[in-house]
Amino acid sequence: MSNTFDDNDRKWMKRALELAEKGAGYVSPNPMVGCVIVSEDGRLLGEGYHERYGESHAEINALESVKDRTNLIDATVYVTLEPCSHDGKTPPCAEKLGELPFNRIVVAMQDPNPEVDGRGIRHLENQGIQVDVGLMEKKARGLNEFFLHHVTHLEPFVTLKIAQTADGYIAAPDGKARWITGDASRERVHLWRSRYDAVMVGRNTAQMDNPRLTVRHVEGRQPRRIVVDGKKELSGDLNLFSDQYEEKTIVITHGEGEQGDEDDPMLDILKSNYFRGKTIRVPPYQGHSDLKKAFKELYNMGITSILVEGGQALSRALLRRNLVDKLELFIAPKLLGGGMRSVTGLGIHHVDESIRLYDVGWQQVGDDMLLSAYL
Prior knowledge:
Radius of gyration: 23 Å
Oligomer: single chain
Number of helices: 12
């Protein structure tokens, strides 16, 4: 296994990564994967990506795009993730690639999924194909951070999104939060919604803002919608419970009932606020719903990534329990001088107790600034 890459290698792997990203939001819980096939003399023969969960993988789509398979002799394959080696909804890609006369396969990163984890690479090498691993690995990992997190930690990847003024407020003294940030930032959030499995808010945000949590400013998949309503007292007239996507709504509560139980549908039909979504009951934690248990239940439902668009209370609860993996903090060029702070009550009394942010990045989005960091 060699790890020597040249400019042509980087060119084709960049293209494979661009293709992979086209599957964002549609392939979960699978990873996004792109594949490019290049002839011995450097010509593009075929390309493809994993387009929908349950459908053909990137390697198969790329092979099917090749017009003349005689050109595959001594060709090179560029793929953003180790080819799978197990039967799932589709046959193993490593076996298919190993049957063909390729000279070399360049893989951006090894797949940590226990069902793969190097087996695909070893199978290809056993077929006499040179396999080079590690080209543009950091970008490949960033592209699939949701997938990598859920297969290694067995829980959803959780991003906390906060939009605040330059002096740290998320709502005015009258409780209103619309609109602190500009149009470009709101469009960015809608793009994120289309890529996460679910969007979460707390009871106060649902009651005050009556959000829809849908994708409107961009094209993309509509996410599941989660609202934390411990005592389940929110009005059934809210958008989350009454619009065209109500079946995508999940309520987290710690009311009467056993952990993980859903509402009895026959009882719900008798309620004025009956809706066609789901309810998950978890134990209480310090007077609120146990969010750690809730995330485990959501993971068991197949939700592998959650974008939290909560207010102060939900942000505080998640940060205090170390349940946030990534922070996306919009800072608008506005001053309120009062109102609701973005984060309070973390139980921190000294600077050296601060929650540390890592891999910090800054970018301008319209007139706003966006801080992106990991916890």
